[in-house]
Specification:
about 120 residues, alpha+beta, 2,3-Dihydroxybiphenyl 1,2-Dioxygenase, domain 1, 2 domains, 8-stranded mixed β-sheet
C-alpha cells in the first residue's frame, strides 16, 4: 500500500512574519489548530494538501513532509529496521491522532501521522 504525503509543516524562526508572508503572497488564511501557535492553512476545495505553520523548535527554518500511516508503531519499527531513526518520540494531538518525526539513513527528516479522531 502506498502511503502518500498528506500534509506539510513549515517550521519558521518567526511564525508571525511567515504567516504574514504566505497570506500576502499566496492568499493563505492560516488559523490556529490544536494550539494558538500552530497555524493551519487549509487547501480548500481545490487540489493540494493542508500546510501547518509553526515555530521551529531549534530556530532553524525547514519544511517537513508528513506521511499518513495506518499504524504508527508498525511504521516506527520499519523505520528503525531499515536504518532510520525516530528522532521525536510519539506524541498525541487531541482529536487528530498520533505522530512522530523520523529520519532516513541520510538524516532527512519526515513526519509520520496516524489519524485517530478519538485521540
Amino acid at each position: 500500500m502506498n502511503q502518500p504525503v498528506t500534509y506539510v509543516e513549515l517550521q519558521s524562526a518567526d511564525l508571525d512574519r511567515s504567516a504574514a508572508f504566505f497570506s500576502a503572497v499566496f492568499g493563505w488564511r492560516p488559523q490556529p489548530f490544536a494550539a494558538p501557535d500552530y497555524l493551519v492553512a487549509g487547501h480548500g476545495d481545490g487540489l493540494g494538501i493542508d500546510a501547518g505553520l509553526l515555530t521551529s523548535q531549534d530556530g532553524q527554518p525547514r519544511s517537513v513532509a508528513v506521511i499518513r500511516v495506518e499504524d504508527l508503531d508498525v511504521a516506527m519499527s520499519a523505520v528503525t529496521a531499515n536504518g532510520g531513526a525516530v528522532v521525536v518520540p510519539p506524541f498525541t494531538i487531541s482529536g487528530v491522532g498520533r505522530g512522530c518525526y523520523i529520519t532516513d539513513p541520510t538524516g532527512l527528516i519526515v513526519g509520520l501521522h496516524h489519524y485517530d479522531p478519538s485521540a
